[in-house]
Write a structure and sequence with these properties.
single chain; 2 helices
């Protein structure tokens, strides 16, 4: 009897955690016309999604990967 109740309790907790993890993140709305100043932390720029034909998209992704690899030098101790 207790094992069934315990199992249901664990499943409820896991379901609740799963629901919270998969829920979309709500961003606080910004005031209209608000400008970013030096006091607000800046978020890193997200890469723009590839556009165009599939071949152009492949070329854009390759170019972005090449730039990312070149911008991060490998450590000497590897």
């Amino acid at each position: 009897m207790f094992s069934l109740v315990g199992l249901l309790l664990v499943l409820a907790i896991v379901g609740l955690l799963f629901k919270r993890q998969t829920a979309p993140v709500a961003h606080p709305p910004q005031a209209a016309g608000a400008q970013h100043n030096a006091a607000t932390p800046s978020t890193p720029a997200l890469p723009t999604p590839p556009t165009g034909t599939p071949q152009q998209q492949v070329d854009q992704v390759k170019k972005a990967l090449d730039q990312a690899v070149q911008s991060r030098p490998m450590p000497d101790n590897l």
